[in-house]
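ingest -> fold -> write
write: protein_1
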Amino acid sequence: MAGMANGDRPEFADYLRYRRAAMTVPGGGRSSRRRVPGLRRQEIAESAGISVEYYTRLEQGRAPSPSRDVLTALAGAFELSAAERNHLFRLAGETPPELESPDAVIRPGLARLLRGLDDTMPVTVHDGRLDLLAVNAAAAELLKPLKTAGRYERNIVYQIFTAEALPELIGDDGAKQLTRIAAAELRSALSRYPGDGYLRSLRAELMATSATFRDRFERGEVGATRSAVKRMRHPTRGWTTFDIEMLHDPERDHWLMLYSFRDDI
């Protein structure tokens, strides 16, 4: 997309003008000398660290598509949210920037959803580093055999490779399948956050302590599981089949995992 005339993307120029008009004049209120709402082009250009001539050409659709650095500077000048910034990047023909790290806190509405499903189904939320952020009461009961201790106690991959009770929870065949999936998901997480010290140290810990992890990880598989059917030993129902669905919140890189009972199998 580099070098493409901005005039070929009129929505981008329109969005710049819209965002500038929506900006509040510094100091609050609006100056009586301003004939149009929002900030002047010069004010946005100065905030973004670019020339007013270049910014004017961008608004008029007469400049080549801006670089990622310029787009980032414009997003800051317009005080865009993550969703608005990503929209700006897409309008310019660029892939939105990756998150530097997942959000550490789930949305309050999601927390209420988990509690509301306590008597209906197990539900968990984990982040893009595969750390559990929340579990409802039903999930805590079902997944109790996977509880571990230490620095990585909330990490799903660590639990799977260190919990001795894993075969008791999902059977020997299920355990073999799940360890492959877990190693593949960790490889995917490392590719999303290549500089993440926590993930790197987790991998090093498992490589040093788990022959099973070394075998699974060295296969080079990459995780992409979003739906599954699993038989698990429920503490009160016994062996039970679950439909498992994963829903993604990309803005926070949170994953909602729903365990739906399948009484027909």
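write: protein_2
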Amino acid sequence: MKLAVTKGFYSSLIALSLAATLVSCATDAPPPAPPAPPPAPAGPPVALATAISDAAAVYSDYIEKVSVMKGEFADGAAIQAQLTAAESYEPNQLAHGAVAYAAIVAMQEPAFRSSLRGYATNDATRADLVSRLLANPAYVSVLPGADIAARRVVLALSSDGQSVYKAGAAVKQTAYDIQKQKWSREFVAEREARLAAAKTNSVTLASVESDDSAKLLAAALSGSGLVTRATTGQTTGSAPAAGGDSVTFTPTSATTPATPVATDASSIVATTPTAPTVFDRPDLFNQPYTQAVNRALTIAALAILGEGGESRSATLVSLLDDGDGQRCLSMSKLNLYQCLAVAKPHYEDVFCLGQHVLMDTGQCLGKMSSNALSFDPIKRVGFKADGTSAYADPKPYIKPAPPAKKKAPAKKKAAAKKK
């Protein structure tokens, strides 16, 4: 009897042990998965010195101000106010600002950003690329996506240039239109002081609007948010926007031969192109790019690589100096001084404003954007009777009509006859 109890007791223990083992096997969690591998290094974040966004803000503010100017003047004071506003830029600062603005435009191109971020992940590759870019800004043109980014830049700068040029052309036309109004023929008061003020306004640096600079910097770092003034859908090679491209350009004399249009000097008249070119004209985007475009792309590339932060501010600022744009804008200032020095009636000041402040400045921006761009009308050539050439230029410099001679009173005429 005792043995039977013992056997039953141990049998129960064995059964309980087996059950516990089965329960344990059923409830134990699987072993944890191995940890995920560490992410590949992404390289330094996109960085751009505030000196670049500050310069771009000055440029953008000036373009917004002058591109909407109209030739609407009620008196001499209105002319002087608009002249002062438009002439108030320092050539180096405006040229630098154009390149800085173009760099931020280039940073909006996704293809350019993605390719450069790929280079940024490897320290050695990134350092080698930075070295090449700093040694030769034109090197940037061979990088993947640079051609599309360059297209954006050309479109943005040329659009700005044309908007300023067109505003100037309208103002210049006003110089002819208002000559019928008596007040426009009156001489400008304090002409020498007005010329001195123009020279002072041309060497005074414009202040930076911090909010505008901050918005441009945010657009550069994020790669989105900047809306340029280009009115075409051709920015990244896509189909034209609905309605087509509304902006036209005049080809340069280098790409368009002069055409004989007359055999008699009396029949030569100013003409405009019969088949104007458009933004997506291929030669506008041909290499070699201008200094301004190459330098803008280089600044953008350094920033996207993460090598354009405050520590490189001085280097980036030096890249803003394209040379050609500064010389062009400085020459427009000299032409303005000469114009104001000889201008006397109010309508001549309007001519100086339209031609040498607005049109010349717009032309300089066009030249900074593309080697194949000019806003000047085509000069079509004809021939005089003696076989020499005669150009059908636009209207010549304004020359006031000689004053009409006053008629002598009838009594004085009679007295003169008696004598």
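write: annotation protein_2
The two ends are 180 Å apart (CA to CA).
Residues 50-241+282-377 form one domain.
pipeline exit 0
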